[in-house]
Amino acid sequence: MAARHEEIADELRRAIGREEYAVGARLPAETDLATRYGVSRGTVRQAVAALTAEGLIGSRQGARRVVLASRRSQSFAELRSFAQWARAMGREASGHVVAQEYRPATAEDTVHLQLPHGTTVLHVLRLRGLDGEPVLLERTVYADWISPAVESIEPDCPSVTQRLLDDTGLVFAYGEHVIDAVAAGARDAELLGVRRTSPLLRVRRVTTTREGRPVEWSDDRYRPDAVSFSVHNSIGNNALARKTAE
């Protein structure tokens, strides 16, 4: 059974998703929320802290919290799989393997996965959805040592990350993300239900174990009307590095 602060956080997420609290709007004061839900201010603070960590609301001390994003905002403050992020937002994630095959590692694969040139790696094209709506295409290349475990997972598994943890104990510990924009090609447009040449948000990522061993690298392409990204910075911690296009 979920703790009371988790239930309150879920209710506030849904309210934000319904735009009862639009982006830029202030949440009610802690005392008002405590009265509404019949709990202490401490319980309200726990719920608000969860939404702050997810990037939904601002965390300015001494002021009423301001809504920063809808429930479809992806924060890079922590490493989460697509399914984990969707679940935290109160959405239902889906996945379907469109194509899957073994190929010799290319020069790009060897750099990202730190493998000898020509090593056989697994390429997977996966279409991901939110509440049944296609929003993301993942083109993922898996290192040779984890490929057999990935290949054995059913094509419609909603969370490969969770399945690998359950089956092999593998933990995706670190990730590096590069974000830019690309035009949708014919196949991407068909699978995502957008026009050809429509802009897509691209996230190229490399994920490793706690020991720094690369597990996968991926070219992820999001429909921009479905998902946005958020990065929270402070004077003491800046998670976002600006680079020129490559």
Q: How would you sum up this structure, described in words?
A:
The protein is an alpha+beta fold. It is 28% helix and 28% strand. The chain is built from eight helices and eight strands. The protein has helices at residues 4-17, 30-37, 41-53, 82-88, 107-113, 147-151, 160-168, 186-192; strands at 73-75, 93-104, 120-130, 133-142, 174-183, 199-208, 214-222, 228-230. The strands form two sheets. The protein has a six-stranded antiparallel β-sheet. The mean pLDDT is 84.
List keywords for this structure.
246 residues; alpha+beta; 8 strands
Q: Quick summary of this structure?
A:
The chain is of the alpha+beta class and about 250 residues long.
Major β-sheet strand ordering: 2-3-4-7-6-5
The value of Rg in angstroms is: 20 Å
pLDDT below 50 for ≥5 consecutive residues: which ranges? none
Helix and strand content put the structural class at alpha+beta
Residues in β-strands, percent: 25-35%
- The DSSP helix count reads 8
Q: What spatial form do the alpha-carbon principal axes imply?
A: globular
Distance between the first and last residues' Cα: 48 Å
Order of helices and strands: HHHEHEHEEHHEHEEE
Largest beta sheet, briefly?
A: 6 strands, antiparallel
- Secondary structure: helix percent: 25-40%
Total strand count, please? 8
Q: On the 0-100 scale, what is the average pLDDT?
A: 84
